[in-house]
Amino acid sequence: MDSRFEYAETHRNKCAACFRQFNKMEHLVEHMRISYHSVHEPTCGICRKHCRSFESLREHLIGPLPRQECREIFANRGCKFCLKVLDSSYARRIHQERCQLPGNAGLIGRFANLGIRDNLTIGRGPQVVALACKMVGGGSDGSLDLCIRPEYLRDAMPMRQVQRKIQDFLCNGEPMWKIRPRNGRARILVGHGLDHDLECLQMEYRAEMIRDTAKYPPLMKTSKLSNSLKYEIQSGIQDPYEDCVATMRLYMRMRSQVHKREDQPLACDPQNKNNFASWRQSELERMTPEQMLEISRSDYYCWCLD
Known about the structure:
Layout (H helix, E strand, L loop, with lengths): L2 H10 L12 H11 L18 H9 L5 H10 L11 H11 L7 H8 L13 E3 L4 E4 L5 E4 L11 H13 L16 E4 L2 H7 L9 E3 L27 H16 L25 H5 L3 H7 L11
Parallel strand pairs: 1-4, 4-5
Antiparallel strand pairs: 2-3
GO molecular function, one term: nucleic acid binding
Keywords: Hydrolase, Metal-binding, Nuclease, Zinc, Zinc-finger
GO cellular component, one term: nucleus
């Protein structure tokens, strides 16, 4: 086969999102079927490559083997914290001064920096609250992580009363079984490793109202105590307030992303279940990579939808 034809075919079979190339169109279709590329993935501001996480995006920009063109532009105009590419090096400098949480700000100043109002409303959408538990070493050798619960403290509020107060605050006047993810009064709960915190408090909350930075795919990385945007969580001497600030900032960063609006943004939505169905194989193989990306949907709920 003519090598020029092979090159043209391979180039035609290039994923419009992650830029992987395939020898056959059917292989590209299968890739799109299982990759769940979408407008909600972290994307390089220079070459527009989609990455599964911000950690992958960081590797693409400044890792051991970055794309050279992207590395050079990012070195001059890229924010090392949020990985955003600015219009100029001056704009980058101004942006980075605001992008990193100051370490010595007071309580009111730090909340003002977060943009959180007194009623815990962050701009549009539902109210949000962050939760973190103070952990201490337990057991004979101190190797167990234990939550400081009221029964361990002198003159503390009884555990049941603590649970009731937290639940009442989260539900905000709505019965637990009536909580709606949209247009309701219940508050979104933000935290890092919330399964463990809620277990320690012997509480439950609706899964669709929980935003856990330890489980959010774009923030996933190997370390459980950090994240791909370099906000330190549960590191050093643990301070529940600092953990709440860090997780709230991460949530706000993710929620404030501007993504293309879609009527049915999730792959599990009824209208999207047949987007890459096997019975559409012939039709899909006639599509361009860009057309397939257009109908591809995310397999996770993006927080920008809040």
